[in-house]
């Protein structure tokens, strides 16, 4: 169990859109270094940087062409090292984004793997042995290599799948996990991790972590692979941590991950809260958090007491929180996100309510995700302080509305979302029950009903969290004796015998006697 994860709060940085320090219209490493104090002041003590390795950026960097070299547009490996060093000086930790499942078609490994003659990279990717046979259940690249065969792809058609082997081999070209090719791929992955950990990074967010072994119905093979990685880390980098994009903590945590994300796809019901037609966190009060809570309880039970489930405010793949959640409900959403157990992840700009920019043409393989990836709005100077390049040179358009939020204005406004998020993180850190490993017990979470209430617990305190996003007064049964109010947003609650009444659009945290 890593101590530093007990009170970690992450800030996700999409590097191309964060802060441009050399006026080329694109964010960079020095831009991140420059803003570490901002992130620290908000209360976050860890960052996750989206892929920042050499890449043609056909999928925003999730198409790596060289895992050992920082993308020149962001700076050099030394500049990245400085991000690690400067973060450490501020008691912060840095995660890089590890993309183990696929590379770019431009990666040298793939170019060599496409050759007809056998070489070191022949088995680095998942190939069938004739162009006339496609890998079952997967898309593939075919007809661009001298090599006779189709190469499986993982996501976009320019992202060939690396070969870690098949759990069940039913075709001659299916290689088992312990074949030479798959073993070499895994060793290379460890080398990549070793390289960046030695340079000072503190761990990884792992892309599509659950998909490495093919034909692995119950993920047994993939779990085994990650256990192997964990053994290596325990031996060489015992302080290194990992969070998986997997969405099944029972599996990922068995595989040695410390944390797993709740995903906006799959069975989590995360979208019921923030991203659907009638989200729970809306003042319309027509949403339903019941299924989410039921699923969450089940997932948490499976994850065990040491497993950390991460509920993000958003990320580079989903709509901005502020696309569907409006006004005070943004604050109330954060009151929820920052009072739940697990490790919170705040997507850059969500702390000021940055909007989804409508109508953008796809940039770097973003498609519908592009609107959530627009450049950070720092202040009211040119390009909102993101870059001094001419506006047309920004690699992606900004929110151009006259009332777009910016960090500087919100920092000086006591009532801003920024200051609410800051207060919430501070409150979380002052109460052991609210921290990442504190206990959780749902007190009230009924179907189609508001509010939602839960207890957070530690050895020395119990805190009742009551949240009512709806714009109407609501009641719930409750027989606790309320103690001190440690946080409130909106109105308050009033207790009478066996019942409490909650004001409209309100979130409160009370100690319990
Ligand atoms: C998940 C990443 O978050 C997403 O942005 C990317 O496109 C796919 N994985 C493919 O790597
Ligand atoms: Ca730049």
Can you walk me through this structure?
- The protein is an alpha/beta fold.
- The protein is 25% helix and 17% strand.
- It is built from 13 helices and 20 strands.
- It has helices at 29-34, 36-42, 77-89, 108-113, 180-199, 220-236, 249-254, 270-274, 290-303, 321-324, 328-337, 407-411, 417-430; strands at residues 10-13, 46-49, 53-54, 66-70, 93-98, 140-141, 151-152, 203-206, 241-244, 259-261, 308-310, 345-347, 439-444, 452-457, 462-468, 474-477, 482-489, 493-496, 499-502, 506-512.
- Strands 11-10-9-8-5-2-1-12 form an 8-stranded parallel beta sheet. Strands 13-14-15-20-17 form a 5-stranded antiparallel beta sheet. The chain has a 3-stranded antiparallel beta sheet with strand order 16-19-18, with no helix packed on it.
- Helix 11 (328-337) packs parallel to helix 13 (417-430).
- The longest helix is centred in the middle third of the chain and has 20 residues, at 180-199.
- The protein is globular, with a radius of gyration of 24 Å.
- The protein starts with 9 loop residues before the first strand and ends with a strand.
- The model has no long low-confidence stretch (mean pLDDT 97).
């Amino acid at each position: 169990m890593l101590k530093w994860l007990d009170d970690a709060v992450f800030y996700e940085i999409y590097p191309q859109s964060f802060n441009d320090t050399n006026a080329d219209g694109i964010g960079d490493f020095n831009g991140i270094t420059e803003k570490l104090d901002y992130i620290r002041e908000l209360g976050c003590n860890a960052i996750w940087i989206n892929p920042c390795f050499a890449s043609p950026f056909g999928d925003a960097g999730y198409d790596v062409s060289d895992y050992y070299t920082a993308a020149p547009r962001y700076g050099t490996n030394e500049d990245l090292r400085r991000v690690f060093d400067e973060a450490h000086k501020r008691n912060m930790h840095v995660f890089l984004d590890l993309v183990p499942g696929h590379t770019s078609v431009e990666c040298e490994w793939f170019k060599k793997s496409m050759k007809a003659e056998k070489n070191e990279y022949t088995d680095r990717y998942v190939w069938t042995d004739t162009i006339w046979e496609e890998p079952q259940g997967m898309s593939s690249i075919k007809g661009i290599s001298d090599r006779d065969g189709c190469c499986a792809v993982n996501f976009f058609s320019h992202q060939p799948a690396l070969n870690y082997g098949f759990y069940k081999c039913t075709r001659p070209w299916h290689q088992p996990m312990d074949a030479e090719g798959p073993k070499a791929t895994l060793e290379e992955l460890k080398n990549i991790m070793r390289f960046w950990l030695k340079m000072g990074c503190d761990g990884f967010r792992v892309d599509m972590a659950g998909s490495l072994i093919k034909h692995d119905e119950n993920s047994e093979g993939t779990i085994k692979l990650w256990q192997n990685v964990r053994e290596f880390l325990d031996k060489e980098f015992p302080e290194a941590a990992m969070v998986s994009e997997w969405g099944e903590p029972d599996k990922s945590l068995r595989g040695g991950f410390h944390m797993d994300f709740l995903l906006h796809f799959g069975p989590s019901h995360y979208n019921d809260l923030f991203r659907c037609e009638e989200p729970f966190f809306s003042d319309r009060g027509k949403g339903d958090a019941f299924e989410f809570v039921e699923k969450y309880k089940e997932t948490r039970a499976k994850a065990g007491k040491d497993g950390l489930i991460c509920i993000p405010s958003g990320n580079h793949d989903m709509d901005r929180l502020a696309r569907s959640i409006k006004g005070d409900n943004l604050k109330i959403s954060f009151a929820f996100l920052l009072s739940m157990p697990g490790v919170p992840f705040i997507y850059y700009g969500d702390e000021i309510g940055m909007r989804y920019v409508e109508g953008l043409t796809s940039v770097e393989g973003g498609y519908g995700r592009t609107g959530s990836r627009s450049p950070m709005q720092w202040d009211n100077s040119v390009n909102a302080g993101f870059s001094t390049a001419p506006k047309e040179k920004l690699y992606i358009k900004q929110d151009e509305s006259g009332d777009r939020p910016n960090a500087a204005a919100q920092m000086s406004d006591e009532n801003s979302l920024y200051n609410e998020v800051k207060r919430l993180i501070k409150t979380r850190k002052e109460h052991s029950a609210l921290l990442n490993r504190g206990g959780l017990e749902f007190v009230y979470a009924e179907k189609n009903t508001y509010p939602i209430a839960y207890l957070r617990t530690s050895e020395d305190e119990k805190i009742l969290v009551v949240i009512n996003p709806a714009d109407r007064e609501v009641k719930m049964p409750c027989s606790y004796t309320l103690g001190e109010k440690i946080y409130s947003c909106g109105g308050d609650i009033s207790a009478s015998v066996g019942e409490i009444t909650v004001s409209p659009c309100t979130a409160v945290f009370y100690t319990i006697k």
